[in-house]
Design goal:
12 helices; eight-stranded mixed sheet; 14 strands; globular; two-stranded parallel ribbon; 294 residues; 40% helix; alpha/beta; Rossmann fold; single chain; 17% strand
Length: 294
């Protein structure tokens, strides 16, 4: 496998998991390649070693600037978008230009679904969210088209909220709750779709190694819960109160263009993974939080 974004939180975890499973991974790096397991690339210039792509069974992209950032200036919004779109497009074009046409596996998010209250969202649901993050995910997924037009197998992982104390949302929320300041965000009735780190790397590997894997996959755990339920369960596990509500106005001020991801409701179900027989190790919110806090 050729992997972009291998040094990030998700990339590191997945790379380690793949190594334990016996898969060979070549990491794409922006700097000088220092080992046989690395290859230099410049995604913004459209440059990647075509021989590395040609030799791969799967080319995967997890690259992207952090979502946890402040302030969200116009410049950072451009950086955030380009870090996802340009990297994906460069890899899609490299796959399209190869003779063997390896599989392209692209990361994305559930933001494109937008706010749909308590309606269950599957891979068949529309992705027409009129938000900054909604637009980013559409551009992100559209960047895979050179590969699919060339006949390559393409799969897109729409990832939910990852729960692990070492990174992602839980790394930000845990100290807040430990300080006794945790509680529902906004109205609290909005749905939050979550997944454990272990289930994410297992699901990503399932898709990458599946002979017929193609198209969109919701990589999120089953049984999405409300934001209020999430806060109560996290507070219970940390033995802290979870009654202090975070006003919507404060979220909009702090999170700027990504506030919709905290205030909107996305009740996402991993329909395709379940249909294909994937079994989640952490199928409930409590399972996922316990695993993430361990």
């Amino acid at each position: 496998m050729v992997l972009a974004g291998a040094s990030g939180f998700l990339g590191t975890a997945w790379r380690d998991h793949l190594a334990r499973e016996g898969h060979e991974v070549v990491r794409l790096v922006r700097g000088e390649a220092l080992s046989a397991g690395e290859s230099h690339w410049d995604p913004y210039a459209g440059r990647v070693d075509r021989s590395v792509v040609e030799a791969a069974d799967v080319v995967a992209n997890l690259a992207g600037a952090p979502l946890a950032h402040w302030p969200w200036t116009a410049s950072y919004k451009m950086t955030f978008t380009a870090s996802r779109v340009a990297t994906t497009r460069t890899l899609a074009e490299a796959v399209a230009g190869s003779e063997r046409l390896p599989m392209l596996l692209a990361q994305s998010g559930i933001a494109g679904y937008g706010d749909h209250g308590d309606a269950v969202l599957t891979e068949e649901s529309s992705t027409d969210a009129d938000t900054f993050m909604g637009e980013v995910t559409r551009l992100w997924e559209d960047a895979t088209r050179p590969a699919s037009r060339a006949g390559a197998r393409v799969a897109v992982m729409r990832t939910g909220v990852l729960l692990d104390r070492r990174g992602g949302a839980l790394a930000l929320l845990r100290p807040v709750f430990l300080a006794g300041l945790g509680g529902p965000v906004g109205r609290g009735s909005q749905y939050l779709s979550t997944i454990s780190l272990r289930d994410w790397v297992r699901a990503a590997t399932w898709i990458a190694t599946g002979e017929g894997s193609a198209g969109v996959y919701n990589v999120s755990g089953p049984g999405a819960t409300t934001n209020a339920d999430f806060g109560r369960e996290l507070g219970r596990l940390l033995h802290r109160p979870s009654v202090v509500p975070v006003p919507s106005a404060a979220v909009r001020l702090a999170a700027g263009p990504v506030a919709s991801e905290l205030l909107g409701s996305a009740r996402v179900e991993p329909a395709r993974l379940l249909e294909e027989g994937f079994v989640f190790d952490h199928p409930t919110l409590r399972d996922r939080l316990e695993a993430g806090l361990a």
